[in-house]
Automatic annotation (TrEMBL):
<dbReference type="InterPro" id="IPR027417">
    <property type="entry name" value="P-loop_NTPase"/>
</dbReference>
<keyword id="KW-0813">Transport</keyword>
<dbReference type="InterPro" id="IPR017871">
    <property type="entry name" value="ABC_transporter-like_CS"/>
</dbReference>
<dbReference type="InterPro" id="IPR003593">
    <property type="entry name" value="AAA+_ATPase"/>
</dbReference>
<protein>
    <submittedName>
        <fullName>Oligopeptide transport ATP-binding protein OppD</fullName>
    </submittedName>
</protein>
<dbReference type="Pfam" id="PF00005">
    <property type="entry name" value="ABC_tran"/>
</dbReference>
<keyword id="KW-0547">Nucleotide-binding</keyword>
<keyword id="KW-1003">Cell membrane</keyword>
<dbReference type="InterPro" id="IPR013563">
    <property type="entry name" value="Oligopep_ABC_C"/>
</dbReference>
<keyword id="KW-0067">ATP-binding</keyword>
<dbReference type="GO" id="GO:0005524">
    <property type="term" value="F:ATP binding"/>
</dbReference>
<keyword id="KW-0997">Cell inner membrane</keyword>
<keyword id="KW-0472">Membrane</keyword>
<feature type="domain" description="ABC transporter">
    <location>
        <begin position="6"/>
        <end position="256"/>
    </location>
</feature>
<dbReference type="GO" id="GO:0055085">
    <property type="term" value="P:transmembrane transport"/>
</dbReference>
<dbReference type="Pfam" id="PF08352">
    <property type="entry name" value="oligo_HPY"/>
</dbReference>
<comment type="similarity">
    <text>Belongs to the ABC transporter superfamily.</text>
</comment>
Length: 333
């Protein structure tokens, strides 16, 4: 088995506020191997994006990584100096943000930003850097790349800015890409094109990816493995086929049941009752228990431990063996 490009081990990222300690990420572990795409899926506030920001050392006060390790090619990222992290970011590790203006400087032309991004980590001429930038824009489906290089970010549409941000992340063909819902602002045609380019990059450069998304349809068609997050924890993990067809955790099954493709025409969408708990006031026991129709007394008082196997693990006292909306999909193997 390949050595992981990234190994996140018992990561804890907490925010220390006047209202209390918000446990945004609490004991999260997963591996990403070369050429593998791992999807982080869950509702807003589940800790997906904070996990990605933690990997790159982008947590600002009052947030702080309070525990765990993140090994990139054997190097613990939590032990690196700010300068060492800067040398990794954009070069060997890249991040694609949901908001492209977190990547783009509004007062600099696109060519200036992309050329500087290339030359910050590669000893090449401006002409060679510009050609690499032009090629990257073409790869993400931007028409007339020479014209687009000469404009400012505000002269582009939101979707076009996002494609530029993705192109910047791909400039150095990094060993690891953290993608924080990068296709949310794109229409389905461009989204499909971007996903295809990501697959090509993975095949060409053996790039590992962590793909953060709330969209199960996108993750299902892209990721090799899926980690389902809830209230700062991974509640179920396994290869994509296992998660999509043989899910065991009630929360995962609830997410699958709320996807329109999984509901017969004319039937209402299945909903998970209630709302996700605040990271400031997590309930005792299982965080999902107040919303789970299978919860018992033990769920309300004790935190479930990890069950299952190395290939399919879940945190639940009462894992389901039959999918409530499709008995054949959830049958126990």
């Amino acid at each position: 088995m390949l050595t992981p490009t990234l190994s996140v081990q018992h990561l804890r990222t907490h925010f220390f506020t006047d209202a209390g300690v918000a446990k945004a990420v609490d004991d999260v572990s997963f591996d990403v191997r070369p050429g593998e795409i791992v999807g982080l899926v869950g509702e807003s506030g589940s800790g997906k994006s904070i996990t990605g920001f933690s990997i790159l050392g982008l947590i600002d006060a009052p947030g702080r990584i309070v525990g765990g390790r993140m090994l990139f090619k054997g190097t613990d990222l939590t032990q690196l100096t700010p300068e060492a992290l800067r040398q990794l970011r954009g070069n060997r590790i890249a991040m694609i943000f949901q908001d492209p203006m977190m990547t783009l400087n509004p007062v600099l032309r696109i060519d200036t930003q992309m050329i500087e991004a290339v030359r910050a980590h590669a000893n090449v001429s401006r002409a060679a850097a510009r050609e690499r930038a032009r090629h990257a824009l073409t790869a993400v489906g931007i028409p007339s790349p020479d014209e687009r290089l000469s404009v400012y970010p505000h002269q582009l549409s939101g979707g076009m800015r996002q494609r530029v941000a993705i192109a910047i992340a791909m400039l150095h063909e990094p060993e690891l890409i953290i993608a924080d819902e990068p296709t949310t602002a794109l229409d389905v045609t461009i989204q499909a094109q971007i996903l295809a380019e990501m697959q090509k990059l993975r095949a060409r450069s053996n790039t590992a990816m962590v793909w953060v998304s709330h969209d199960l349809a996108v993750v299902a068609g892209l990721a090799d493995r899926i980690c389902v997050m809830y209230a700062g924890r991974v509640v179920e993990t396994g290869d994509s086929d296992t998660i999509l067809t043989r899910a065991r955790h009630p929360y995962t099954i609830g997410l699958l049941g709320s996807v329109p493709e999984n509901v017969r025409r004319g039937e209402p969408l299945h909903q998970i009752p209630g709302i996700a708990p605040s990271a400031l006031k997590l309930p005792a026991g299982c965080a999902f228990a107040p919303r789970c129709r299978h919860a018992t007394d033990i769920c309300l008082t004790q935190e479930p431990t990890v069950q299952g196997s190395e290939t399919h693990a879940f945190r639940c006292f009462h894992p389901r063996t039959v999918h409530p909306h499709n008995p054949r999909a959830g049958a126990q193997a």
